[in-house]
Amino acid sequence: MSSLVCTPDGTLILYTKFDHETELDSDSGVTLNIADLNKIVKILSYIDKEDIELNIENNSIAYRDNDIQFNYFLLEDGVINAPAVVIDKLKKVDYQSSFTLSRGAMNNISRLAMYASDSEKVYLYTNDGSVVSELNDRKRHNINNASVKVSDTFKGSEIEKPIPIKYENFRVISASQRNDINIFINTELSVLMFQASDEQSSTAYFMSGLVA
């Protein structure tokens, strides 16, 4: 089972593949057009069970037990525009640089963001063999900024020209992952892939760099 979503502005794409058994017809495939993820996550949070069995009934997702019942209605095909991307092609992009972002490094960036609250960008670059994250907006003057080393090592080419990304996109990725994240960067196209995995799923976020 897999999911594909993107932010309204298209600057962040998420593809997740779940290692989970279902009774859906895997040969023909079933597409679930979910209009509002927050709503379905909210209703699922009321179910106090580790294993939840959801049923696909006509055009809705249904759940019933002795305590709670709900129907979440799906949209028809074509109402939601799927991201116009081919995930396999994005994965095969020539990423010249890569490094691992630990959970501790993510927390450090989040703490610095409270200080550099005027900044909406995170710049990634290498310096003296390490990877640095800088919260700043180099197009604006006189705003608080801060930088922190986020990895002692990296593989591949140096990132000589800082690559800016939206801090909000980084915050979304950081908040949704408990494990370390492997980051791959194409410095020519300014395309980044964030990869994470656990026992049940593998996730890839694709992001475009901003104008410096």
Mind explaining what this structure looks like?
By secondary structure, the protein is of the alpha+beta class. The protein has two domains: 2-86, no CATH class; 88-208, DNA Polymerase III, Chain A, domain 2, CATH 3.10.150.10. It has four helices and 14 strands. It has helices at residues 37-44, 87-91, 103-115, 167-176; strands at residues 2-6, 12-18, 55-57, 60-64, 69-73, 97-101, 121-127, 130-136, 146-151, 155-156, 163-166, 181-186, 191-197, 201-208. The strands form three sheets. Strands 1-2-14-13-12-6-10 form a seven-stranded antiparallel sheet. A four-stranded antiparallel sheet has the order 9-8-7-11. The protein is elongated and about 60 Å long.
Gist of the model:
The chain has 212 residues and is an alpha+beta fold.
CATH topology of the largest domain: DNA Polymerase III, Chain A, domain 2
Shape: elongated
**Percent range for β-strand residues:** 35-45%
Shape-level CATH architecture of the largest domain = Roll
Structural class call reads alpha+beta
Query: End-to-end span in angstroms?
Result: 37 Å
Largest sheet: 7 strands, antiparallel
Strand order across the largest sheet: 1-2-14-13-12-6-10
Summarize the helix and strand pattern as letters. EEHEEEHEHEEEEEHEEE
The tally of helices reads 4
SSE topology:
Layout: E1 2-6, E2 12-18, H1 37-44, E3 55-57, E4 60-64, E5 69-73, H2 87-91, E6 97-101, H3 103-115, E7 121-127, E8 130-136, E9 146-151, E10 155-156, E11 163-166, H4 167-176, E12 181-186, E13 191-197, E14 201-208
Antiparallel strand pairs: 1-2, 2-14, 3-4, 4-5, 6-10, 6-12, 7-8, 7-11, 8-9, 12-13, 13-14
